[in-house]
Amino acid sequence: MNVHATALAETHHFDEPTSAFAQDVIEDLSRAPKRLSPKYFYDAAGSELFEQITVLPEYYPTRTELSILRDHATAISAIIPDGAALVEFGAGATTKVRLLLGACRLGAYVPVDISGDFLRAQAQALRTDYPALRVYPVTADFTAPFELPEAVGNMPKVGFFPGSTLGNFEPGEACTFLKNARAILGQNARMIIGVDLEKDERTLYEAYNDRAGITARFNLNVLHRINRELGGDFDVGAFIHRAIYNRDRHRIEMHLISKKALTAEVLGQKFSFRPGESIHTENSYKYSIERFALLARVSGWRLLETWTDREGMFSVHALTSAD
């Protein structure tokens, strides 16, 4: 960790999550090229914008994965032992987990996310609709090790990681996440995970450059968040959203591009931008089924089963720990 970044954050007496945000922002904007972590997209405003993205006509992943979960709910639920604790990494809206609730008998549901307010609101809505379900929300960075609630200690554990979030990680980071998840869930764990598949570039481009501009607002919101929470003075209007497909690396890249020369200040530290300079905010890797199976294997998991939609746009996998 950058010592100067840590000192700046500590002098402002932030709480722990905001301090981590401050340290990461200062460190990442000090790099060449500049970047910001996609995990900071998801404050309350960012989470709401992402939910809007999921229903856009261009954005295929959510509706396609939902169709897989609906069509194969019985087979997928058979992977989940009766009385298990279902631990959802990066829980957002509860639409997807609700498709499993009617098909299996859970002991508890543990949604985990960094956005505490949004998480608690979703957990309360779930309790209202499923009063017999024990729900234990955990506010944590799910990309790092965290402790599960003691109440689920003796239950079988099944991880749930829907969406295409795994693609946001570099391959080495994805491996680390899968290893961490295996350690958190413990022996004889299972995992249900969504993975976006390789496809034609036009479909990918349109999915991340929607005509309504919601993805652009979602991307730009991270600068608004820096201004709101860290007292930054970014001229947000001086940046534009850009998403491109990097064919060689099988990934969509999202960037914020400075339209002019400018300087922004965060916690007393100034960052200069040239016209056309990028802040790289997110990657979204696309996998073949074979490449994902290899990633799972080297991360300590064994592939049990794979389900896809008819067009082969998206995939849902069941894994078991290789104990």
Task: Explain this structure.
- By secondary structure, the protein is of the alpha/beta class.
- Helices cover 37% and strands 24% of the residues.
- The protein contains eleven helices and 13 strands.
- The protein has helices at residues 3-11, 16-29, 44-53, 60-71, 73-77, 95-101, 116-129, 171-185, 201-208, 214-230, 289-298, and strands spanning 34-35, 85-89, 108-113, 138-139, 157-161, 190-196, 239-246, 251-258, 262-266, 269-273, 278-285, 301-308, 314-321.
- It has a seven-stranded mixed sheet with strand order 4-3-2-5-6-13-12, with helices on both faces. Strands 1-11-8-7 form a four-stranded mixed sheet.
- Strand 12 and strand 13 (314-321) form a beta hairpin.
- Helix 1 packs across helix 2 and helix 3 runs antiparallel to helix 10.
- The protein is globular.
- The two termini are 34 Å apart.
Entry keywords:
323 residues, alpha/beta, seven-stranded mixed beta sheet, four-stranded mixed beta sheet, 11 helices, 13 strands, 37% helix, 24% strand, globular
Low-confidence stretches: none
What's the assembly state of these chains?
single chain
Number of H/I helices? 11
Strand order of the largest sheet: 4-3-2-5-6-13-12
State the order of secondary-structure elements, H for helix, E for strand. HHEHHHEHEHEEHEHHEEEEEHEE
Helix fraction by DSSP (H/I, runs of at least 4): 25-40%
How does the overall form come out from the CA principal axes? globular
User: If you average the pLDDT, what whole number results?
Assistant: 92
Distance between the termini: 34 Å
Strand content: 15-25%
Instruction: Please describe the biggest sheet, giving its number of strands, its sense, and whether it closes into a barrel.
Output: 7 strands, mixed
Rg for CA atoms = 20 Å
